[in-house]
Amino acid sequence: MPASTKTRPIAKFATAVGQCSAQAAVYGKCIVADYNDIHKNKCGEEFAKFQECVKVALKK
């Protein structure tokens, strides 16, 4: 298969992330709401939804 027709993994990932812009926006807003108080699992629920969206998009 020629390299030009084969999807590179990073390109596939970028496309999947692009399909989850709504979830990414919610997660981003959660993080910047109080960026001085960043800690492990801050906005964990929002991140989990974003992560699940990306996983589903990668399977398509």
Proportion in β-strands: under 5%
Number of helices: 3
Oligomer: single chain
Task: Please mark out the parts with pLDDT under 50 across 5 or more consecutive residues, or reply none.
Answer: none
Strand elements, count: 0
User: So what's the overall shape?
Assistant: elongated
The first-to-last residue Cα distance is 20 Å
The biggest beta sheet is recorded as: none
Mean pLDDT: 90
Q: Give the helices and strands as they follow along the chain.
A: HHH
> Which radius of gyration do the C-alpha atoms yield?
15 Å
What is the SS-derived class? mainly alpha
- Share of residues in helices: 55-70%
Structural summary, described in words:
Helices cover 65% and strands 0% of the residues. The protein has 60 residues and is mostly helical. The two termini are 20 Å apart. It contains 3 helices and no strands. Helix 1 packs across helix 3 (44-59) and helix 2 runs antiparallel to helix 3. It has a domain at 19-59.
Describe this structure in a few short sentences:
This protein has helices at residues 9-18, 21-33, 44-59.
Give structural attributes.
60 residues, mainly alpha, 3 helices, NDUFAF8, IMS import disulfide relay-system CHCH-CHCH-like Cx9C domain-containing protein
